[in-house]
Design brief:
This is Amidoligase domain protein. The protein is of the alpha/beta class. Helix content is 38%, strand content 9%. The chain folds into two domains: 63-80 and 95-182, no CATH class; 183-394, no CATH class.
C-alpha cells in the first residue's frame, strides 16, 4: 500500500500531556503568554495519487503527541498584535479562560501562517493546519490546553519539509516539552475518494499485526510497550477469544489456523465487530465499521521534533505497505514470532514501494530502532484515571470523525475516523 502525503493533526487529550491518556496531543499555554503541552497531537491525512498495491490513492492521518511550553517573551508580541475586528490582547486577557485559549490558538496559527504554513483555528475541510481546543484534555494550573491538526498532504509533494517547518516554528516561539502519556497516532484510510480496503488487504495487515506483534512492541519505548491506550492486539480483552486462543497456541499449531480465520472474514466491517472489538490497541480497526475506514497505529510515543514525527509516520506507512505486499503463505507453517530483523525488512520494503519521497526516510534515521528496556506500565491509580477517561469517551465521536465526515469532497462523505 502506498501513502503519499501526510496531514498532521494534534489532538489535545488522551495520551498526551495530561497523563497517559488516549492519543491526542495538546499544548497548554501559560496564562502570561507562554504555552505548555497538555495532551497529544497528531499528524493526520496522507494521500497518494498513483496506485500502489491496488490502492489508487491513500490517505493517512497521524496523531502525534507534542505538548509545548512557549515562552511568554517570544509569544506575547504576537498576542498583543492580534486584533480581529474589535478585540485586542489587553482586553481579552480579562475575559476568562475560554477567551485566553482562543487568543493563544489564533496567535500560534498566525505564527504558522507567517512561516508559510497556512493555519487557522478550525479543522473544517482539513485544507490547512488547525490549532484547536480539546475539552477532554487535562489542563494544568497556569497553562492552556490546545491541539494541533495538520492539513491533508500528498507524499508526492514536500510533506517532510512542511512538517519540519511546523516544528521549527513552534521551537522558534517556545520550548517543546513532552509529558507522561503523550503519544502519536497514525490513521491510514485507503483513499480520499470513498474507496475501501479490500478484504485481502486487511487479511494481510492482520497477519502482519499478529506475526510482528512482539517485534512492534520491541520497537516502541518502555511506556508504550504495555500501555492502557495502545495494548497488544492479542492481549486479554483486546480481541475475540478464539483469535486470542489461536494466537497463544501458535507455537504448537503454527500460524496457519489463525491466518485461515483471518481469511474467512469477507467484510471489513466485521473485523471490529468479530475480531478486534477494542479501539485501545496497537493497531485499531474500529474505524472500518464507519465511513472513515482507517487502520490506526496507536503505539508511537509523543514527539517533540520533526525527525521523531517523520520516523513514526514512515514506520506506519512502511509497515502497512509492506504487509499488503507480502506473501503470507510462506509463514503459515512457522511456529515462531516474527524477528525484529524481518520487521525492518518489511518496513523498508514498504517504504521503497512508496517512492522517492518515502524510500530514504528510515535510512536517514539509522534504521528501525529496537528498544530493549523493560515496559513501564501504568500504576493502579493511573489505571483508574485512565478507566474514567475511557468511560467519558465512550460513544463520543472524535473531532476527526465528525469533521472528516462533514467534508463533501473527501472520505468524509465517504469516510470518517478516530
Amino acid at each position: 500500500m502506498a501513502m503519499e502525503g501526510p496531514a498532521v493533526r494534534a489532538d489535545g487529550r488522551g495520551e498526551g500531556i495530561a497523563r497517559a491518556d488516549s492519543a491526542r496531543t495538546g499544548a497548554a499555554a501559560h496564562k502570561d503568554g507562554g504555552t505548555r503541552g497538555v495532551g497529544e497531537p497528531w499528524l493526520p491525512f496522507w494521500h497518494r495519487e498513483r496506485p500502489i498495491v491496488g490502492l489508487h490513492e491513500s490517505t493517512m492521518s497521524c496523531r502525534r503527541g507534542m505538548p509545548i511550553n512557549l515562552r511568554a517573551s517570544r509569544l506575547r508580541p504576537t498576542l498583543e498584535a492580534w486584533n480581529p475586528e474589535h478585540d485586542t490582547w489587553p482586553r481579552l486577557e480579562h475575559h476568562g479562560i475560554w477567551v485566553n485559549r482562543n487568543v493563544l490558538r489564533r496567535a500560534i496559527a498566525r505564527e504558522l501562517t507567517g512561516a508559510s504554513v497556512e493555519a487557522g483555528v478550525s479543522t473544517q475541510g482539513y485544507d490547512m493546519w488547525s490549532v484547536m481546543d480539546e475539552p477532554t484534555l487535562d489542563e494544568r494550573p497556569d497553562f492552556w490546553r490546545l491541539e494541533l491538526v495538520s492539513r491533508c498532504m500528498t507524499t508526492n509533494t514536500d510533506w517532510q519539509g512542511e512538517i519540519t517547518k511546523v516544528f521549527q516554528t513552534l521551537q522558534r516561539i517556545g520550548e517543546t516539552q513532552l509529558t507522561t502519556g503523550c503519544s502519536m497516532h497514525v490513521h491510514v484510510p485507503p483513499s480520499r475518494e470513498g474507496n475501501s480496503y479490500k478484504p485481502e488487504q486487511l487479511h494481510s495487515i492482520m497477519k502482519a499485526v499478529a506475526y510482528f506483534d512482539r517485534a512492534v512492541t520491541a520497537a516502541v519505548p518502555p511506556d508504550r510497550k504495555d500501555n492502557e491506550w495502545a495494548a497488544s492486539n492479542f492481549q486479554k480483552g483486546s480481541c475475540a477469544p478464539r483469535y486470542a486462543e489461536l494466537y497463544s497456541n501458535m507455537s504448537s499449531l503454527t500460524w496457519g489456523p489463525l491466518f485461515q480465520e483471518f481469511d474467512r472474514i469477507r467484510l471489513p466491517a466485521l473485523i471490529p465487530i468479530n475480531v478486534f472489538k477494542n479501539k485501545y490497541v496497537s493497531w485499531n480497526f474500529k474505524h472500518l465499521g464507519s465511513e472513515c475506514g482507517t487502520v490506526e497505529f496507536r503505539r508511537p510515543p509523543g514527539v517533540k521534533d520533526a525527525r521523531s514525527a517523520l520516523y513514526w509516520v514512515a514506520f506506519t506507512l512502511g509497515f502497512l505497505e509492506g504487509a499488503m505486499g507480502h506473501d503470507w503463505s510462506n509463514m503459515k507453517e512457522e511456529k515462531t514470532h516474527g524477528a525484529f530483523l524481518d520487521l525492518r525488512i518489511i518496513i523498508r520494503g514498504g517504504l521503497k514501494r512508496l517512492g522517492p519521497s518515502c524510500a530514504g526516510i528510515i535510512d536517514n534515521m539509522d534504521d528501525i530502532r529496537e528498544e530493549k528496556s523493560q515496559p513501564t506500565p501504568a500504576t493502579r491509580q493511573e489505571k483508574e484515571v485512565i478507566a474514567a477517561k475511557k468511560r467519558e469517551k465512550l460513544d463520543k465521536e472524535s473531532n476527526f470523525a465528525v469533521k472528516v465526515n462533514s467534508r463533501p469532497s473527501t472520505p468524509a462523505s465517504a469516510s470518517a475516523s478516530s
